[in-house]
Queue: 3 jobs
Job 1
Amino acid sequence: MNIILLGPPGAGKGTQAKILVDERGMTQLSTGDMLREAKTSGSEMGNRAAEVMNRGELVSDDIVVGLIEEKLAAPHGAGFIFDGFPRTLAQADALGDLLARHGETLDAVVEMRVDDAALTRRITGRFTCANCGAVYHDETKPTAKAGVCDVCGGTTFTRRADDNEDALRQRLMEYYKKTSPLIGYYHAKGALRVVDGLAPIDAVAGAIRKVLDNS
Ligand code: ADP
Ligand code: AMP
């Protein structure tokens, strides 16, 4: 089963993707994570992408479609979770072509609805384990023991360069202008399922579980 988690920055896509990886053995494909890895590796593409990301703008379709294309050929267990991809209509068309070429289907597009005020609180409180990438929040999902990652025991945490109010304003604008048209695009294909992303993490996971079990 292949699914897309669709929603604005901070909607909880990465958090829910990790739950699905643990529960179902699916493979998370986050273009944001791939771009950040490219930056860490010091590649020229990574450095150029980082400048665009820090401004809160979208990286070019060619780059992110290329990143996804590389991953589709690899073994993927119980299916792919596309997290943060596609973000434009051109990317959605490209994904449709790539899946068809690999003999794969798209089984559900889960739209996670969250209002802008909650997104700002989520983004400004987000931090990540530098070792394993587990995602936390100062208020809604702190580590069980202060300063120690629940998942791997790591003690170093990072905050994203683009998780500030200025970049978020731009990221939200990009979402509403370029990504939200995908809601109509997938609705027209009969693939769209909506969940309340404002609910607590476990409740959102339950709603997604129900959607996937019925898809
Ligand atoms: P996205 O991948 O959509 O950008 P994340 O999964 O990284 O979003 O979540 C953004 C922040 O909000 C993180 O700090 C995360 O711990 C927190 N968060 C995620 N889902 C919820 C939720 N349902 N309720 C409260 N906080 C949440
Ligand atoms: P994310 O980790 O999903 O919040 O993405 C962080 C940033 O990476 C975005 O603000 C964009 O600059 C870039 N990015 C991630 N995925 C895409 C995509 N599918 N298309 C264009 N840019 C992307």
Job 2
Amino acid sequence: METRIIKLEQEESDEDLLQEAGSVIRCGGLVAFPTETVYGLGGDALNKNSARKIYEAKGRPSDNPLIVHICRFKDIYEITERVPKEAVKIADAFWPGPLTMILPKSDRVPYETTGGLGTVAVRMPSHPVAQKLIAYGGGYVAAPSANASGRPSPTVARHVIEDMRDKIDVIVDGGEVGIGLESTIIDLTVSPPQILRPGYITRKMLSGILGSVEEDITILKADSGQAPKAPGMKYRHYAPKGELTVVQGDAKEVTAYINAHAKDAMAAGNRVGVIATEELSGEYCADVVKCVGRRDDEDMIARHLYTVLREFDEEGVTMIYSESFDAKDFGQAIMNRLLKAAGHKVIKLD
Ligand code: TXA
Ligand code: MG
């Protein structure tokens, strides 16, 4: 299959192009598109064949459920059995935006979309291109991140082209995404509600509205002995080809540790990369040093993380060391993805 790439120019003609892309979804095809978090790979959420095609294009296990994207709040009533008042409250506060809610599904949603579960994940994205495509695509668009299974989520169309060319019908290039990490997932079928995947909408923001909010214990811990509640979180996602180690501790000790180990690894024939903050990036001696942003600028670090992991792959880096980041608020999402990419390989120096 030849993939059509549609580049949006922020002109009136975009509207026609999005309408065409929407009709591809309505006819059972697959379209990758930007959202404010990462690029999604969209198909008709109410069509079981579309769901099957999504799993196939991604090479993703079909027990890993998809998020259904809507563009109007009232559409939530079509695809869920019950909408608790908590859902209405957090939708008022954070939708459209980077928040996904787990709710009991209605009969309209096929089990192919929910990976066999009786619950459905629902999100209303804020990206204008996503909103239009969902509307033109029939209102219910199932979309996982548009990466091949096991690779970092795409934050620019080029990443999608790398992973999905000739596997899907259309890629809509709407430029770089704003956030760079996937949405927060909150399960509203349990009481108190539980965060299954951290993201830009933090626990503090959610508990400001809902009161008590719990967290899946597996978010930052490898050794909890429990399976994550979001089926997708059990896979070693976001994995770069090189072996990644996260180094935690005081700045001086971290740079000294990384430099000593980078030197040995390079002597042993590795190509070594470092994920560094702006403050320390000048301190490292390695083949490739990538700066993700200032230490206190979580938004910048989040936006760069997946791009940097992909660049290490392209540049043939076989051993990667990363600084560790403060795991509070949005930083928790950054550390969750980084630790998963590292398969929880962490060196603690303090
Ligand atoms: O920001 C995002 O959420 C992006 C954009 C495209 O919207 N989408 C995304 O989808 O990250 P995906 O498929 O890569 O991740 C969805 C996660 C998986 O870990 C999946 O297991 C979980 O959501 N999930 C989906 N439905 C669920 C359900 N009913 N119960 C528990 N977890 C669910
Ligand atoms: Mg994903």
Job 3
Amino acid sequence: MTSTVEGILANYAGETPGVIGNLRRLMLHGRLGGTGKLVILPVDQGFEHGPARTFAPNPAGYDPAYHAKLAVESGCNGYAAPLGFLESIAHEYAGRIPLILKVNNSDTLGGPESPISALTSAVPDALRLGCAAIGFTIYPGSEHRNVMYEQLRNLIREARDVGLPTILWAYARGKMPKEAETSVDVIAYAAQIACQLGAHIVKVKPPTGVVWQEAAKKAYESIPTETLEERIRHVVQCCFEGKRIVIFSGGASKGYDAVVDDIRAIHAGGGFGSIVGRNAFQREHGESLKLLSDIMEIYEGA
Ligand code: FBP
């Protein structure tokens, strides 16, 4: 099983031992440790969407300790959150589960047209909190995207120098309709940009069958994109032919079967795993544990 992990890490051969070590740490941790698959719990939605929308469905989640405990109990590979949440739990959880500091965040109180996240913490915070990686969001599609790409260039360099890998949330958003944000061509493009920017792990939304860019329509005539499995395979191919780890987000809360169907398709299409937030922590505790367990069971399958 660990040879699978070493095979993946061979694709990062140019990296510093610190970065490789932390990627190994993420891939060897938790129930999926050694399989080359990852399930990460992200809880930045209190910042990104607001507290009531995020935590009212399961009020236990207003407490930061709830999420760290859920991530450990369920056997996740890692737990990602902004500075405040991590500061309140790191003394108890650093070393018990790989922590990922989300170093930029945006709220939904401003306009949707030109999104850009604020730098809300920094590499020294990640080190101080005992993190295994930093997380950063880019919005390809925003008129501010080049600012984000340039911020990231410096940040990846700084994080790499101290041995921390960067996980990139690549969300197309800005001057495009909602259906474009998750279209297969735009998701694949966002994933490729993330890899080109030097991300060690890329995170995107599962793509729909829509092809949005006029200029890409011809190319997509010969790319199979009918099923989610095919679209996942295409996104993996766009992440350097699978040489960069790409994982897929869970999205807004939905029914158990819909979540599980998506995970089956992600697994079948060669995706490296999931980063599932609301679909996990917005459920009642026992149900979250069951769903995360069922998700991990799918990823354990050959
Ligand atoms: P979810 O599983 O809850 O979608 O979490 C993954 C995530 O990337 C979060 O880190 C982030 O806050 C959220 O998605 C953003 O979702 P949206 O695009 O709907 O604002």
